[in-house]
Amino acid sequence: MPILALGAWFKHAACLLEHDRAQFGPNLGDLDNADACRSVEPAAAALLAQADGRVRAVAHDLHPDFHSTRVAAALAARLGVPAIGVQHHHAHVAAVIAEHGRFDARPVLGLALDGVGLGTDGEAWGGELLWVAGARFVRLGHLRPLRLPGGDRAAREPWRMAAALLHACGRGDEVAHRFSRQPAAALLGQVLSRPALCPATSSLGRHFDAAAALLGLCEVMQTEAEAAVALERLAAGSTAPPVSPADWQITQATATHGPSGPSSEASPPVGELPPDLTLQLDLHPLLLCLADAPDAGRGAARFHATLAAALTDWVATARRLTGCDTVVLSGGCLHNRLLSAALHASLPAVGCEVLGAQRLSPGDAGLALGQAWVALHQLAAKET
């Protein structure tokens, strides 16, 4: 029986998963305007009309305020089927797995790298290392968080992310002078000293923004992903210095993976939960180096090369601890061709099979397929 999934907020496209085949509705764009929101339900109805039988469930993002979530809940209630919430980054990883035609529950490692997605702890995630086995996932690791001074505004103004980095590294007194063109710069230190005004995020997308602002490429964005695009373009025409392992740090802390409990073995057999740990990847040293970079092009190239090396080291560490040797690359940051190519080259060298998006977008446009894949496994688990 088919499963309908309604995606999330950005680049919304619903998906009908049936007989291991996916059919997408139109990409309606971001659900930040009335026209796009009004189109969600008709697009879902059009997919339902093509289903071979009654749908088993309607899947959606965990975020309760997304219009797509509200439509999914209402639609599921009318159809008398479950509405299944799927964590954003779990869905990103699952979408790539499904695109590769893998519908079993063999564990994989997943890098989910994007701008933002609601985590199971209510925080803003976006730089995640996951262990995924069908309906189950474990947050094995995440990037060291950055503060979001001004909340959502920081996602549109990269200078704020750069300021957050400088403040976290004890160099907050530089912010007012470095970003003197920004009226709020002189007072941002006071904002950053009040955590309630600055939610934390593990987003890799915000790390890209901080890097671009520290290198003087973009302080305020006028178009989507403007800072990250500028950083990639500059890096593509520049030569990176040799990568220094001092530019990142991986720290290990204990964690609780859920009621089923982690395995007590260092390398658990396939299918068991991974060890009780969290691996934090700290990129603050790299960003701090960019703050002092004399050449923006060389700094942009350094950021990309070091980021790929750090992510590879992170995955290799998780591979040793979990026994998983398949890694899935997902999330909007994988639109960056330099980063994607570097990871596809470096991860096999540390013993990993690499799965990446092929025809589908690695970002939110393909997210609904992952939601449906997870929902399929969740329903199967309840039937056994």
UniProtKB/TrEMBL annotation:
Compositionally skewed regions (Low complexity) per UniProt: 258-274
Domain Carbamoyltransferase Kae1-like: 110-371
Gene Ontology molecular-function annotations: carboxyl- or carbamoyltransferase activity; zinc ion binding
Top-level lineage group: Bacteria
Gene3D superfamilies for the chain: 3.30.420.360, 3.30.420.40
Chain residue ranges for the region called Disordered: 253-274
Stored InterPro entries: Carbamoyltrans_HypF-like, HypF_C, HypF_C_2
Gene Ontology biological process terms, A to Z: protein maturation
Database matches in Pfam families: HypF_C, HypF_C_2
Residue ranges annotated for the HypF Kae1-like domain, each copy included: 2-99
The family this protein is said to belong to: Belongs to the carbamoyltransferase HypF family.
Name recorded for this polypeptide: Hydrogenase maturation protein HypF
Lineage: Bacteria, Pseudomonadati, Pseudomonadota, Betaproteobacteria, Rhodocyclales
